[in-house]
Amino acid sequence: MAGRQRQRLLLENAEQLVLVCGRREPFLRREGAASLGVLRGASLVVGLDGCIKAVGQADVIRNQFSEATFERIIDCSGKCVLPGLVDAHTHPVWAGDRVHEFAMKLAGASYMEIHQAGGGIHFTVEHTRKATEDELFTAFQHRLERMLRAGSTLVECKSGYGLNLETELKMLRVIERAKKSMDIGISSTYCGAHAVPKGKTATEATDDIINNHLPKLKELKLSGEIHVNNIDVFCEKGVFDLESTRRILQAGKDIGLQINFHGDELHPMKSAELGAELGARAISHLEEVSDEGIVAMARAKCAAVLLPTTAYMLRLKQPQARRMLEEGVIVALGSDFNPNAYCFSMPMVMHLACVNMKMSMNEALAAATINAAYALGKSDTHGSLEVGKQGDLLIINSSRWEHLIYQFGGHEGLINYVIVKGKVVYENERCETMSSY
């Protein structure tokens, strides 16, 4: 009987328990994203296996389970429980910050002008190649901890600041190490085609990736040393053109990697059309996506990972979130954390998505939970509060969940608990109750 079995966690009597969805939907689009499932006066149970065992009205759960069976009980009266946030696009493994380039951008230099002057990705590559694996891991660990405290419980993490096999593998080993040693969930991405290495043409770099990098990744996967989930290419004018992008993505798909790549950011490249054709799981950026590309992505169920922080910091045209939603695209969100867009916080990303991309708060939360999980191929286990899914949750000190988005930069005083697999991995004891504010 469920009531007598040992359980890991009971979250009791939440003012609002935000399911996001409740019918095992792999994603939400249009009306689904506009209206989320919310229970009032509800409780949730996480079992010893880290999965959700029950969700429902507090009195029903109380009658179903004995309090003595729980390892921990948290009274959520006056508080809200939400799914852990999912950050669908980050570059968190690198050495050498680029604060000096922020000053250049403020003075009017464009992304590609900085890139062509030897800055940008190439500056970070130089420092990352020199860094030891331990140095990269220590910095990466601190960044992931900050993401966790801001509510992210599943994060996509890319390589891409090596551009040679040795350093790309060093970065992927760092990501693998974090997968095994940290509480936060990680989806790893090989992004060796992040830029064309100095001294190579795009064609030469493409051949190197296909003939050397990807066979080595396949070998390491088979030996169990490194498990990579996704393949990424920066499809952009002056970087990797459409044909090079096609060749690399197809080669990655052939060794079992999900296609999840940068497209149509600075120039219209027809990346969206290519991704739909190749069966991409997701495409990021899309500031310059075509109308035909939007329709193609909707038909192919290819998620659009929109990055409002990047458009904001680089002063780019905002992605067409409203148009995408209206056309039935699966819209997800990511922070694009990297030396060029230094933001750890998905609550801030959601706020910017609402203000600058005209998304509703419901749409933004769906984009940062179930749809971001879908973009990583993880929506069967993450992104909503449903029985059988992993018990990754946030508890916020507010009687309305919308405070997580409304309070711009306020998550440090709002997020009370972050929970992964039913275990409290962050507890903010200084968190002030917001109900009276």
From TrEMBL:
A Pfam family recorded for this sequence: Amidohydro_1
Gene Ontology terms for molecular function: imidazolonepropionase activity; metal ion binding
Listed pathway(s): Amino-acid degradation; L-histidine degradation into L-glutamate; N-formimidoyl-L-glutamate from L-histidine: step 3/3
A GO term from the CC aspect: cytoplasm
GO biological process: L-histidine catabolic process to glutamate and formamide; L-histidine catabolic process to glutamate and formate
Domain of life: Eukaryota
EC number: 3.5.2.7
Coiled coil: none
Catalytic reaction equation(s): 4-imidazolone-5-propanoate + H2O = N-formimidoyl-L-glutamate
Keyword Ion transport on entry: no
Cited InterPro entries: Amidohydro-rel, HutI, Metal-dep_hydrolase_composite, Metal_Hydrolase
Enzyme class: hydrolase
Keywords: Histidine metabolism, Hydrolase, Iron, Metal-binding, Zinc
Residue ranges of domain Amidohydrolase-related in the record: 81-425
Cofactor(s) needed by this chain: Fe(3+)
Family named by the database record: Belongs to the metallo-dependent hydrolases superfamily. HutI family.
Protein name: Probable imidazolonepropionase
Annotated source species: Callaeas wilsoni (North Island kokako)
